[in-house]
Each structure stands twice: as C-alpha cells, then as structure tokens.
Amino acid sequence: MSASLEGAMEDLIKVFHRYSxxxxxxxxxxxxxxxxxxxxxxxxFLACTSDSNRVxxxxxxxxxxxKDGEVDFQExxxxxxxxxVACNDFFVESxxxxxxxxxxxx
Length: 106
Ligand SMILES: [Ca+2]
Ligand SMILES: [Ca+2]
Prior knowledge:
Layout: H1 5-20, E1 28-29, H2 31-41, H3 43-47, H4 52-63, E2 71-72, H5 73-105
Antiparallel strand pairs: 1-2
Helix pairs in contact: 1-2, 2-4
The structure holds calcium ion (2 copies).
C-alpha cells in the first residue's frame, strides 16, 4: 500500500459519503450516521472510551458549528484534522521513546 496524500483525501471523501448517504440529507451525517462512521472507521478510538454514546454526543456538539444538528463535510474534516494531530503527537512520542530505548541498549 502506497501512502499518498491524494489517495488519503479521496478516501476521506468516499468514507464520508458512504455514511452520510444512509439517512436523511445525503451530504450530511446525522447522529446515527456519525456514530456508525466512528464505530466502523475509528473503532480503536471509540474502544478506549467507556461511554461511546456520550462521546458521540460530545463530538457531535463540538463539530456542529452551524448548529443544524448534522455534520457536513466541512465540519467532518475538522474532526479528522484534530484526530490526525492527536495521532501525530502519539506517533512522535512513541518514536522518541523508541529511540531512547535503543540508546539504553547500547
Ligand atoms: Ca445523512
Ligand atoms: Ca452542522
């Protein structure tokens, strides 16, 4: 699998529409669709939280900038960007930790 930004952007769009098209407005995620997307696509992320319903409520409230009760693509991208930043922090952190571990073994 090659990692390309273009491919990642395309995937992002495809994933959004796969879930947004299930109910109601085809171009927006309602709460059920958002929950479905989070469970299917970000299961590890939801797995570390004990109360997934509350997390979905919280994410929904945080994301829904224009308060129409649904998450459009623009609002969704904000979530993905925030999660990506969080993942990057984790990546950098564990990378640095690994390097330290290597030094200790020398
Ligand atoms: Ca929808
Ligand atoms: Ca909205």
